[in-house]
Amino acid sequence: MRIDVVTIFPGYLAPLREALLGRAIEAGLVELGVHDLRDWTHDVHQAVDDSPYGGGPGMVMRPQVWGEALDAVLGDAPARLVVPTPAGRPFTQATAQAWAGEERLVFACGRYEGIDQRVVDAYAQRMPVDEVSIGDYVLVGGEVAVLVMVEAVVRLLPGVLGNPVSAQEDSFSDGLLEGPAYTRPVSWRGLDVPDVLRSGNHAAIARWRRDRALERTAARRPDLLDALPDHALDRTDRAF
Ligand SMILES: COc1cccc(COC(=O)c2cn[nH]c2)c1
């Protein structure tokens, strides 16, 4: 997979070259290109924004600059263009799974009040364009959202995670939140590991873990429970 990011703050994307993702890049599992949007300005001030038509606060990112940058970065290779924005469709694990199958992702990091809508409209005429939100809050720019989404996608690529099975057993993969996890010591600050986890009774352990996952999901994310297909909950589950 090739990933390109266009931003006015290239330094913000440096963490992508660290640790697990950095190793995936070194191993050639993913290629990463980070591009400074200002390289495609031609004025002395390198202006990337301008006042909004219709008035209102803030500034809007100029279409010409984005058009030149994306044309240059995209070239002729097909890609999916992703624009992080508070006004986007929710980015979920399902989105990450779907994108993990893509040959190429190009991320456009917006700032200010956003990018002139014609940029999305123009590129949507010739490639898939996703305006996506990573949550219901407003950031200053899309860079942090790109870090989140790139990590969620790249960890799913074959060979990136040491033990791939954990990608399948992720939170959300069975529609429930992960329950509590424990490791040594068996007693810590007067708190003990639940006995069942040390019983060696794998059926009881699996039941206990599912019960904790259902309990946590009901308490923290009832919306996920409501979204579960009927067959996903068996008779024993219905207690929650
Ligand atoms: C494209 O236009 C804008 C404008 C303002 C901020 C941003 C950055 O994205 C977010 O704030 C965000 C993404 N998911 N949840 C919040 C983009």
Model regions low in confidence, pLDDT < 50 over at least 5 residues: none
Q: Helix segment count?
A: 8
Structural class: alpha/beta
E-strand count: 9
Q: Specify Rg, calculated over alpha carbons.
A: 22 Å
The percentage helix is 25-40%
Proportion in β-strands:
15-25%
Average pLDDT number? 95
The general outline is elongated
Strand order of the largest sheet: 2-1-6-5-7
Span between termini:
41 Å
Pattern of helices and strands: EHEEEHEHEHEHHEEHH
Bound molecules: (3-methoxyphenyl)methyl 1~{H}-pyrazole-4-carboxylate
Sketch the major β-sheet: 5 strands, parallel
Give a quick rundown of the structure.
With 240 residues, this protein is α/β, with parallel strands linked by helices. The protein has helices at 19-26, 63-74, 93-99, 117-124, 143-154, 165-168, 202-220, 222-227; strands at residues 2-7, 31-36, 49-50, 60-61, 80-90, 104-108, 129-133, 187-188, 191-192.
Topology:
Elements: E1 2-7, H1 19-26, E2 31-36, E3 49-50, E4 60-61, H2 63-74, E5 80-90, H3 93-99, E6 104-108, H4 117-124, E7 129-133, H5 143-154, H6 165-168, E8 187-188, E9 191-192, H7 202-220, H8 222-227
Parallel strand pairs: 1-2, 1-6, 5-6, 5-7
Antiparallel strand pairs: 3-4, 8-9
The structure holds (3-methoxyphenyl)methyl 1~{H}-pyrazole-4-carboxylate.
Kindly describe this structure.
By secondary structure, the protein is of the alpha/beta class. Helix content is 32%, strand content 17%. It is built from 8 helices and 9 strands. The chain has helices at 19-26, 63-74, 93-99, 117-124, 143-154, 165-168, 202-220, 222-227; strands spanning 2-7, 31-36, 49-50, 60-61, 80-90, 104-108, 129-133, 187-188, 191-192. The strands form 3 sheets. A 5-stranded parallel beta sheet has the order 2-1-6-5-7. The longest helix has 19 residues, at 202-220. It starts with a strand and ends in a 13-residue tail after the last helix. The mean pLDDT is 95. It binds (3-methoxyphenyl)methyl 1~{H}-pyrazole-4-carboxylate. Residues 83-86, 110, 114-115, 133-135, 137-139, 141-142, 145 line the site of (3-methoxyphenyl)methyl 1~{H}-pyrazole-4-carboxylate. (3-methoxyphenyl)methyl 1~{H}-pyrazole-4-carboxylate is lined by residues 83-86, 110, 114-115, 133-135, 137-139, 141-142, 145.
